Amino acid sequence: MNATEGPPLRGLGYLTSVSVMKDISRQDPAGLPDVAMDEDARGIALQAVGIRGLRFPARLLNNTGNEQSVVMTADLSIGLHADRRGAHMSRLVEDLYDWGAMPRRPADALGLLQTAADRQECDEAQAILRFDWFLAQPAPVTGAFAVLDIEVEWHGQLSIDGAAYTTVLTLPAMTLCPCSKAISDFGAHNQRAYLRLELESRSGEPLLPDDYLPLVNAASSMPVFPVLKRPDERAVTEGSYENPRFVEDVVRELALALRERPELAYFKIDCESVESIHNHNAFATYEESR
Fold first, then answer.
1. DSSP code for 35
2. Read out DSSP for 221-289?
3. Chain centre to alpha carbon of residue 226
4. Which of 98, 132, 138, 151 has its CA 20 to 30 A from that of 211?
5. In the predicted model, is pLDDT for residue 135 greater than 90?
6. pLDDT in tens, 19-43
7. Mean of the pLDDT values across residues 61-84?
């Protein structure tokens, strides 16, 4: 053994030799070895290798061109070929920073997956992008201005068949129990509910909540409003009493509305009511491919 090579590395026989590791083709301009590009002889391709939980600023445009600055939390990964030892994690971080630096429409998220795959010289990439999106929700009577925060997740997948995203929206609503109203001389219990929508567009592009919050508001007993003056609170109290809804009602009403959305190829609705007089929640679910 050449004294300059040192002893063999135990358990690392699957790696390329020291001479290959020191090959100038594996080095960056600073002369440092690119160990991630070492060959791996174990014959196991990995479905996903990447980074989780990176927070970064981004600028998003809705379908009318209005821009909103958001803070995204991202998971970004690629499919690693069997003969590659590792992925370049820093490139994934760079891809997200570069993507967030310019105003982007939801459709541009398809390009993020392709960029990640191209820079890693692979065929597959995956992303989960989470952020809060704010929409105006003025008070029903006084019109007092307020914005409602909506949780958004974009789940993306790139394969040899192309790229597509599933959008997950979590939106609040109000439900008033029809049974409670029917059996009581006065009053009825009401509570906040949460609508979780899983949406797939025919184009594969991710979606924003702008077109779907009005549908949720219409399907529930009453919308949730961030700011209520006394006339508004009276309107919400009386309006929900006149419009009682089980979770079953909310899901069915929303399903009928989503059927009318031509951009959707698939949707799933889950309505969960955080019950005010029980120690359990009530829920209903429906899904449909179109």
1. G
2. SB---S---HHHHHHHHHHHHTS---HHHHHHHHHHHHTT-TTEEEEEEEEEE--SSSSS-EEEEEEEE
3. 23
4. 98
5. yes
6. 333 343 445 667 788 888 888 899 9
7. 96
Tokens of 194: 């949460």
The conformation of residue 69, written as its DSSP 8-state character, comes to E
> Which residues, 6+ apart, have CB-to-CB distance to 278 below 8 Å?
none
The answer to whether the beta carbons of residues 213 and 172 sit under 8 Å apart is no
Confidence grade of residue 225 (pLDDT, cut at 50, 70, 90): very high
Pairing label, strands 103-104, 46-61: parallel
Please write down the HEC assignment for all residues of 114-161. HHHHHHHCCCCEEEEEEEEEEEECCCCCCCCCCEEEEEEEEEEEEECC
**What residues contact residue 241 under an 8 Å CB cut-off, 6+ apart?**
176, 181, 188
Task: Give me the pLDDT at residue 28, please.
Answer: 61
The pair of structure tokens assigned to 190 is 């009401």
Helix (DSSP H) and strand (DSSP E) numbers for the chain: 7, 9
pLDDT of residue 29: 64
